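note to self: dont lose this again. the chain is below, predicted strucutre after it. 273 aa total, dont forget to put it in the shared folder this time
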Amino acid sequence: MFGYVTANWKELTKEQQNRYGAVYCGICRRICQQSGNAGRLGLSYDMAFLALLLMSLYEPEEDSGKDPCMLHPVKRRPWVDNAYIRYAADMNVALAYYNCLDDWQDDGKRSAKLLANTLEKYLPGIEARFPRQSAAIRDCIARLSGLEKANCGNPDEPAGAFGDLMAELLTYEENLWAADLRQMGHALGRFIYLLDAALDYDKDKRKGKYNPYLAMGTGKDWPRWEEYLVLAMGRCCAAFEKLPLVQDKALLDNILYSGVWVKYRGKGQEEGT
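---
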């Protein structure tokens, strides 16, 4: 359910591409330091968005450098580091753990179970550092599991559960901006869940897996699904625009106003919608 909150790479300037890459590499580097090399297997650009958003809002001092890594052993890659990079790394590992458990339970993927077992030992540390966010991830995943097992036919319910999860992830701390970040995160989470359901409709139908649109019993309906997505993203962007963002604002705009739609538009074009 991740990998949708990404930039439209073709519309980024070279400077923005470099910045985006440095944030991504910074998170990857921190995952390795905080949770071992295996944690990198679950790395998602969604967490780069999370880090960029919080960095733009709070404008922390940044460490930076260039280093080789396992994936790029020859060419030194630029990275940045700060408290929000470290936070995004922890959240990525926690989400990857529960995502692996879901893959194991739903599809019996042994590789997912092995990765979950590897990541599990790092969860107590993450929970100690971020108890509110960790509890939200755990509780919302449990709610989602219950709704899916009940074959819930109302997409609002599972989308709302994932929205609650993202609301807490975007809210790094309780302060002046917490309400706007929660509103933004809740709407973004709804968008992600509903987008994932639309894109996975055919696969879920073929495999007999839960999908809220299948549970509705109305059949494939791209125009209707797009209405849901536009409404959710509209609410997300309305809250986003209330935040006093300057640093990396253009890059964040690219992600929310263009990048999140790339996979959906591509799928719609393939199906002639």
